[in-house]
Structure formats: C-alpha cells, structure tokens
Amino acid sequence: MEVPNPRRILAVSSADSVQHLARVVKDLTGTTPEQTSTSLAGASHNLSLKTTYYTAEVPIWLDLISSPSEWSASFLSAEAKEVLEVLGGVMIVFALPVNASSDEGKASQDLIRQVGKVVKEGLGGWEWDGVGLCLGVGEIDDVDIWEDCCAESGLEFVQVRGQSTPSRNEFGAHGLLEKTGIPRALEAFEANDWANVSADDLGSDFEDIDAELEAHKKRQNGNEDPNTPDLDPESLDFGFDREDFEGLKRAIWNAGKDDGEGFMDGEPKDGTADGETADCERFERWIARRPAEAGSCQGCS
Fold it and tell me: Compositional bias of type Basic and acidic residues: which residue ranges (predicted)?
C-alpha cells in the first residue's frame, strides 16, 4: 500500500555541523540533498521507505540552528502549529565531541534539550505518534552521557561511525544482534506510521458510532429488531451520554483547525503532489516569518 501525502521528517543540526547533516541525509536516502540558494537550510529531500506493509516517499525538511533556545521558542509559538501538525519524525544530527564537558559538548547538549523541548511540549512527548532520533557522528566509545541526554529529551540516541564499522552490535546476555548507525535509523523510520489523519478518516469512525446510536433509538421506539446488538452510551457506566459523544466528535473534527485554514480543512484532496506542495509552502512561509537568529532556514524547495 502506498501512503499518500505522508507526514514529514524535520532534520536539524547546528549551523556548524552542516557537513554531518548532509552526510547523514545522503546515507539515509542514497542521494545528496540539494542546497536552496547558498545554504542547505530550507531544503526538502525525499526518503523512500518500502516495507512489507507500505511504501512511502517521506519528505525530509532540513533546518540549521544558530540559537537552540530561540529556535525552540519559535517552534513552540502559535504560528508554528501547522508545521508541527504534519511532522511524523524529528532527527537531530551532531558531531560527537571527545569531551562532553567541553564548550562543544555543552553546546550539543543544549541543542538536544531544546529540540527535545519542542518534541515534548509541541508534539506531545511520549504521546506523540512519531519517531525522534538523535544521530551522533563520531568514533568515541563512551556514549552513556549522550544516551542519557537524549532519553531525557524523549529521543533515541544512535551513534553513526565510519563506513567500515559493523552495522550490528551484540545486545544482551543472549548475544542478540541489534542494528546500529544508519541501518538503525532506517529501521526506526520504517516502523513508524506515516499516514496523515484526515477528516474523512475520522468521519468514517464516527459514522459507525452514529449508525449504532440511531439503531438504538429505533429499538427504543420499537421500530427495529430487538435482537440487534445494543450500544447505549448512557448504560456503559463510563459517565458518557449522547451529548458527550457529540462534543467529542466536534472537538476531534476541530482539532488542528486555525481560522478554517488548518491542514484538515486546507489539505488538497486531489493528489499527493498538491498536498506536499501545500505543506512545503506552509513550511516556507513559517520559516520566512521566523526570527532570523533562531535558525538559518531560508525557504523550501
């Protein structure tokens, strides 16, 4: 099954780690991301995913961060809501410093914490139906501090070593093998759900509930077979009545809407390409409005 207009991956690095971001994206996708104007910031590059269950062309949005605190503040603002709503993945790429206590190490930890803040507060943290990865590029052996830092931020740490390094590590007392590096990142992305939830998807579920409620009403009036399975929200001991269901339905249908221009209302229904273009344009407009010092993104190609 092909996933139409899949959710996006936001891949970020510090402004001085652009070479590591480019390398990781190339290793993930098989092709080098193209710069927009004179910078890699703002580029969009597709990741082709194919599993037993689905195929998807997942756009990766790239951004470079100059000030992590200002970047997170901008992404947690109301104006960034529509960008966050279509994200199915967040990926940080950084160079592993030899000394975690050095200025470089402290800067990397701050980057991780600020992006993690967006994952927790903007995307829902552990309740978010997405994947958060933090790829550390380097050959150091002791990575415990980075694993802990990423875990505290709701992200999975993945070390990316040189090309000659085995892609599997022995894990646990039974010598099980687990993927590492780029293969592990791909595995995590493949295991994710990239489908965008649309109003039609929500509507089909509520139509079933409405149909059963209507059938229950007819049974009460003696107009339907009494042997039909009964669904009475007032007798389920959950404290719900029909008004609760209607309120829940309205709340979910209205989720993500902003003055009638949210993704659920504004998403093109006639094709994946149109949806991808619209999302990319929203991302571009948001980046253009964002304070320049928060990041270096200059547009979306």
Answer: 256-272
